[in-house]
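Entry 12.
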Amino acid sequence: MQPYFMTYLWIALAVIMIIAEITTVQLVSVWFVLGALCAAVATIFTDSVLIQLVIFVSVSLGSLLITRPLVKKLKAKIRPTATNANRLIGEIGVMLGDVSFATEVGQVKVKGEIWSVKTDNPPLKEGDTVRVLAIDGAKLIVEPVRLGGSL
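Predicted 3D structure (tokens):
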């Protein structure tokens, strides 16, 4: 083998892993980057590919085992932000008209937006306070509430 072949090979592997890390959203290959760089440094001290491979595997696995629980703990603290219409589930709104039957569609104002509404708990009167339970297509499914709790 050429004198620096393994050094270049380990550095190339590190670069490939960096590219893989950049193109993914998850932490997938950052540990292998560290392992490959340590194996590249090991080529300075030994020509043994077996020793370099052991260093690569042990550093990669060791850094994974050390940092993965920390990453999971940090991810658990970050709450996902509801987007689109799903952000309305659980919100309180005000009826803009009457709904007398379960098959009837009315309107509700939730967070400044007017939505079509269906309910399994008719009748709902204009001005009633309702809670959004779910979304069915472009309609909110609501239930009546009173200040301080459900009806």
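Annotation: Helices lie at 5-23, 30-45, 49-77. The chain has a mean pLDDT of 85.
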